Amino acid sequence: MYIGIDLGGTNIAVGMVDDNGKILAQESLPTLSGRSYEEIVKDMAVLCEKVAEQSGHSMKEVDAIGIGSPGAVDSENGVVIFAGNLKFEKAPIALEMRKYFDIPVNLENDANAAAYGEYAVCGHEAESFVFITLGTGVGGGIIINNQIYRGFNGAGAEIGHMTLKMDGKPCTCGRKGCFEVYASVTALIEQTVQAMSKNPESMMNDWIKENGHVSGRTAFECAAKGDEAAMQVKDTYIRYVAEGVTSIVNIFQPDMLVIGGGISREGDVLLKPLKGYVSNGDFNKFMKKTDIQTAKLFNDAGIIGAALAAKNNV
Amino acid sequence: MYIGIDLGGTNIAVGMVDDNGKILAQESLPTLSGRSYEEIVKDMAVLCEKVAEQSGHSMKEVDAIGIGSPGAVDSENGVVIFAGNLKFEKAPIALEMRKYFDIPVNLENDANAAAYGEYAVCGHEAESFVFITLGTGVGGGIIINNQIYRGFNGAGAEIGHMTLKMDGKPCTCGRKGCFEVYASVTALIEQTVQAMSKNPESMMNDWIKENGHVSGRTAFECAAKGDEAAMQVKDTYIRYVAEGVTSIVNIFQPDMLVIGGGISREGDVLLKPLKGYVSNGDFNKFMKKTDIQTAKLFNDAGIIGAALAAKNNV
Known about the structure:
homodimer, five-stranded mixed β-sheet
């Protein structure tokens, strides 16, 4: 029995997870970021007790606790080195957690934890596995031989910050033209807004009257209804995603590559053209191709992945 | 004692290599590509006997033979799946080699073999190691936990074919804007030729009168003498290289990244500005930085790497 904690900028989500990656009980509290790491870990501990009880177990049956945190993480020592949205600097949260429960605590970067969750549940036969999550930014996780690949300093797998268009649009990281600037949902929304203002007759302008504001779904939903401008937004966005995925395939040739984030709920609408672009463009013309899939766990990937990474590491 | 074979489109180079990666004797023959794999392996066998004798040993003292071949390689079965410049298709060269010598034969892609050579001799303390070779194209090799990372199908580490400028200049691979199109020596030569025609007063135009033709050295040598146009070519080229290296650092955060190929002989002239650009641009602002170096083995990397990879794998 394991506990997985998905520590986000907005919520702390905690789940009791069995050996097969099934969530037995789940609870959350607002993160209220800006608080000290001690206060946040205290809330985590309360949630641990709660999900243990709800699932009909006790904390004594829990073999390990896994935490996924945003930012730069030192997994070996259980320290969040830096996390901007949590305002953490060198926060020893694993040690702090052990003040409440005398069991092993494993800390991972949140994207790595989510990647491990998707891998463990859907891709555990893959020797090499890459997870790309399209959200506010573009995150990544790399699993090689059942181990999360963290880089020598724990800061690896920042797939969103490989270049897609050198000297292109500015990125939050300080460089220009990163993959994230074109393939995140933030970017898709920007691309949608631009197309709406260029095409006042587009169905997308009516869509937001009904739905309140532009989202990652706007272009996809209007494209499904045959709106030309929306179809173009959708296709261009998928080409951006495919361009980055092709680079990753050329570098890793992973057994399996999984696309996560809200947009992955589009399923085959995203996947089919994406696979076409990648298969057409990748360098490997003669050998077996990477199996490209959409995510299966969605919002649960963080909790499940944190729990199963803890299981794997202790 | 090991034998390393660097099978190239032009030459077959064979060396007797000791356990520490020192070449004891070395011989070569022209590849005469277009010949059958049986004929080429026969020449390899002749060269093996020759270097064994020259080094004062016999083939009986050789523990394994390592071969580095261009193209797509199935290391597990010792088969070159496809190599355009050798005109090989599904050539079982390891099996063929064993007709001559009854010892283990290990086959690697040539860039992977060279990467392993640089790693084994200069970076063997690195848990993660990336080699990028700037030549006619841009090749790569990735070593993780003392193992060559080949991808699930053997076609991994094609670092030259990650995107640098989406929809940019056409690449030989069929896509546009690959890293290779901007950072290979072929690209540097093209960039040099363009600058020469734009700047007829540039010293580079005199340089070729003395040296016969434009090479990867033209801009670097004239820049060292203060030629403005040459300095600009050099700086722009280094920025291209740095942009790709930054992407690789963001993805892998390797302990060590080594730049190989003829241009790496420039040493600090290349390395200093390159490190500056990467350090300035990479996503990791808070943790230890990747150690970036130029290659140490140059032309011997292929022989040494093939030999030591065989040592590691048998």
